[in-house]
Amino acid sequence: LLCALAAIKFHGYRGLTLVLTFLFYASFHLSRKPISIVKVSGVPRLDCSWESCYSSLLLFNMLASACIVTCFSDQANYNELFGALDNAFLVAYAIGMFISGIFGERLPLRYYLSGGMVLSGLFTSLFGLAYFWEIHVLWYYIIIQICNGLVQTTGWPSVVTCVGNWFGKGKRGLIMGIWNSHTSVGNILGSLIAGVWVSSDWGLSFIVPGIIIAIMGIVCFLFLVECEYEVGLDASSQPPAGRVAVLQHSAVTLSANDRSYSRENTVDSSEYPRESAEQPEAISFLGALRIPGVVEFSLCLLFAKLVSYTFLYWLPLYIVNVGESQEATNAHLTTSLRVLWMEGGILAGLISDYTDGRATTCCVMLIVAAPMLYYGIDTLFLFAAMLIVCGALVNGPYALITTAVSADLGTHECLKGNAKALSTVTAIIDGTGSVGAALGPLLAGLISPTGWNNVFYMLITADILAWTWALQHLTCRHLEIPGTKTGSTKSELGASFPVQ
Asked: Distance (Å, rounded) from C-alpha 253 to C-alpha 448?
């Protein structure tokens, strides 16, 4: 009976963590979406002088398509300005992400994540309140965007760390692939919510999502359980970073003096030695970079995300250039792309679990995507067909690297439970990927005046570079010296992976 109760408690908390983190990160994306909706859908009541349009466009994607045409139709460099537009939030996010993981490793995740969500809600709402307060001061929007980009970086390292704590390495690729659909769910909900007020009081398109993410931050503070030892499920065993030895079948053996997991249902404890009652120290930034695979997968994600975000930001404008289209066509294609991202992540997770090869899965999907990009550059029909394939092939590795791969590397066997690395590794990988997310739209803005074919050649090159880095990791892993073991003594770990 005690075994059954313990198993029910364990699975209950694990399921709760999965659902909560799904909702939390969906709310992050929900709060980011209004900018693109307000930009594309139109705000007809705005009076567009060049000065007001330039200030808003350059920094925030705030104006209607009608205003954009008025402001930029006679400007030779309007594409470059659109490219600068898309980088305002992304640059702040990319820079902040590298710092965020360091703090996330050293602070209680429940406080860190809930605080970031409440602040994100505040800055998102302040952005919308500018409409009602009739604020036209440029620096107000600059400060809001920078602050919002920074506080939003608290989200991803925190939720990946929580899920990684509760789900062992085994077959979490599929689970995290399905869980990663929070991105699509958040974007779709954000589009629907923002669309309600976009043609009337567009300020509410920001205020309502801001309130939602702030409320979810309060829910996070009240209900999130970072790891099993916080609720007495593993209090006498693994500390936070060493929680790879999760119950496989949730059987628990209880004795009169202490409680321990049964031998047949846990990972061999000799692989993850404990250090008396001491908590493991947080790994340093350089120490995290030395974990095998972190650099390779980070650079792979950079180029994969470059392709994905170029599609995301430049899809509507490309459709207009290749042929006549309605706003509804743009919306349907963009939504379809989001759904395919979700399916690609699930497919990549399933394949990587079945083959036990994360890098192999990434290599195959990325190299197949390259010719698909080439054949989609001529007509709208071919472009739509290419989206169906590339939406899965490019974004599958993207989703896999940001979830299961990050969790695997953050609990790499070379750490032996002696260092907390999950949050830092996740931040390094996603931060590097965010550089690609900022770089892609900017390059598209610079290259598109020379022809859209050149933009697609740039995307093909980026896709091949992503494949190259995944292949690099795969090659290095197979060329490891026979007889050497990843696990080291504690002193060797200290030399190779310094903690601070």
From this structure: 64
Predicted confidence (pLDDT) per residue in 13-33, tens digit: 889 999 999 999 999 999 988
- CB distance 381 to 453 below 8 Å: no
Tokens representing residue 20 in the block:
């909560």
pLDDT digits (tens, 9 = 90+) for 43-102: 333 333 333 433 333 333 333 333 333 333 344 444 454 445 556 787 888 889 988 888
Tell how far CA 34 is from the center of its chain: 18
Distance CA 36, CA 312 (A): 10
Q: Are 298 and 432 in contact (CB under 8 A)?
A: yes
CA distance 499 to 419: 7
With vertex at residue 194, the alpha carbon angle to CA 28 and CA 333, rounded to the nearest 5 degrees, is 85
In angstroms, the first-to-last Cα distance of the chain is 44
Nearest to 394 by CA among 445, 448, 456: 456
Residue 96, φ and ψ in degrees, nearest 5: -65, -30
Q: Enter the pTM of the model.
A: 0.73
With residue 254 as reference, give the H or E element that holds it: strand 252-254
What's the length of the chain? 500
Segments making up each domain of the chain, as ranges: 2-229+282-478
Strands 252-254 and 281-282: unpaired
Domain 2-229+282-478 carries which CATH code?
A: 1.20.1250.20
Residue identified by tokens 């975000």 is: 309
